[in-house]
Amino acid sequence: MSFVPANVLGIQTVAVYSEADAMALFVEEADEAVCLGPAQAKKSYLDIEKVIEAAKQTGVDGVHPGYGFLSENADFALRLEQEGITFIGPDAKIIELMGSKIQSRQQMKRAGVPVVPGWDGSLESVEEALELAEQIGYPLMLKASAGGGGIGMAFIQNPEELRKAYATTRQRAESAFGDGTLFLEKFINNPRHIEVQVAGDHEGNVIHLFERECSVQRRNQKVVEESPSPFLDEETSQELLETAVRGVKQIGYTTVGTMEFIFDDQKNFYFLEMNTRLQVEHPVTEEITGIDLVELQLRLAAKQPLPLKQEDVKRTGHSIECRLYAEDPKTFFPSPGTVTRLVLPEEARLDFGIKEGNNVTPFYDPMIGKIIVHADTREEAIEKMDKALEKIQVEGITTNKTLLQMIVQNSDFQYGEYTTKFLDKLLLVNT
Ligand code: ADP
Ligand code: ADP
Ligand code: MG
């Protein structure tokens, strides 16, 4: 199975980069590259007009926004539309609707999709939050409507904590997303994060490409993902997949996306949010279905219909992805620096952003690469991953490699018995 870069599909590519990424692998691999400006994301990757300028200057037909940065920015999609350049993603209106957790919750409720119990309005004051919290019941999640990447949410156990967290969470959301709108959700006990990959076309067809289990998390952000989920039985799985498709059909969705759900220990599931972009963990889905999701995005953006029907989407075997982060495996503090040595396993699929000699900068997300394996059974996939991890050698910076090894060697993980609290517990036991 091969997943080909766009330029192999016959499409010429232009990369945009910041001064900090001048030596990066993606710059080297693209046919052309344009420097956007200084390292700070606000002055380069997040500067809409600079990206538009680069697109116009090189005469591109379309822009693939990747993940992070402007990938879920409605203003960016709109500006491209105004310039007659295709945004490889949904319409600006859909990004706006689903980018707001409050609005998307309301929308999904209307489609009959169960959402996490909570309050679907924006909080006006801490007094109002305290009053609503009594009605919903503790523990709670205080969340930024515009949140992403695990940023802008706080776990709240009592009124005292809510009082304390209210202003800081609002502030953090304001500075990270330019929008301090907050809302409240019930905290789901023993939660599991399971999401559904979906795809829609311009003719109104929507299909799912099965689920991904993403409960191994640190700071509410994913570290290891797999598919199929070891938690789901056939019946629950079917119900989840059908529910996701129903929700997506209702909004008129014309590209690939992810419906995120949270499960409680009774196998009840609730809609969390939708990501209207390619997901970091998309390779896991590509491995089990054999479908290249980026190619699919390109075809859908060209207004081609979905190339296959639901019954043609088959899954085989089991796939696992590990995110290699440049960070301390215990404290999760980022570890920027120069990678003086990089040895990677040959038997795994590798999606890496760096090569030997590259600098890992402190400016962006510290993920440096992903290791993906596929095997007939979950057991074999775990074994393959364990072997692959063992071969990895990174010098010059600290990585979370030992933590990843600890995860795949852990018996709870091996039995598939883990929730989003798994990593915290694992670290507690081992320190
Ligand atoms: P996924 O849901 O695809 O697993 P993550 O939530 O980990 O993705 O976020 C995808 C990437 O985008 C990560 O590298 C993350 O740090 C980055 N990211 C997500 N949201 C933001 C944001 N609002 N600002 C900057 N980076 C973000
Ligand atoms: P983001 O936009 O940052 O990805 P999400 O709403 O998707 O935010 O939540 C990220 C993670 O936070 C979830 O995968 C889950 O682990 C945890 N989480 C979020 N909401 C809840 C909740 N109501 N109850 C329990 N855990 C939650
Ligand atoms: Mg999420």
Lay out the secondary structure.
Elements: E1 14-18, H1 25-29, E2 32-37, H2 48-58, E3 62-63, H3 74-82, E4 86-87, H4 92-99, H5 101-110, E5 118-119, H6 126-136, E6 140-148, E7 151-156, H7 159-177, E8 182-186, E9 192-200, E10 206-218, E11 221-227, H8 234-251, E12 256-263, E13 269-275, H9 282-289, H10 293-301, E14 318-325, E15 337-338, E16 341-343, E17 349-352, E18 359-360, E19 367-375, H11 378-391, E20 393-395, H12 401-409, H13 411-415, H14 422-429
Parallel strand pairs: 1-2, 3-4
Antiparallel strand pairs: 5-8, 6-7, 6-8, 9-10, 9-12, 10-11, 11-14, 12-13, 14-19, 15-18, 16-20, 17-19
Helix pairs in contact: 3-4, 6-7, 11-12
The chain binds adenosine-5'-diphosphate (ADP) (2 copies) and magnesium ion.
Description of the molecule:
- This protein folds into 3 domains: 6-60, Rossmann fold (3-Layer(aba) Sandwich); 117-186, Dna Ligase, domain 1 (2-Layer Sandwich), CATH 3.30.1490; 192-429, 2-Layer Sandwich (D-amino Acid Aminotransferase, Chain A, domain 1).
- The two termini are 40 Å apart.
- Strands 13-12-9-10-11-14-19-17 form an 8-stranded antiparallel beta sheet. The chain has a 4-stranded antiparallel beta sheet with strand order 5-8-6-7. It has a two-stranded parallel sheet with strand order 1-2.
- It is α+β, with helices and mostly antiparallel strands.
- It contains 14 helices and 20 strands.
- The chain is globular, with a radius of gyration of 21 Å.
- The longest helix is centred in the middle third of the chain and has 19 residues, at 159-177.
- The relative contact order is 0.11.
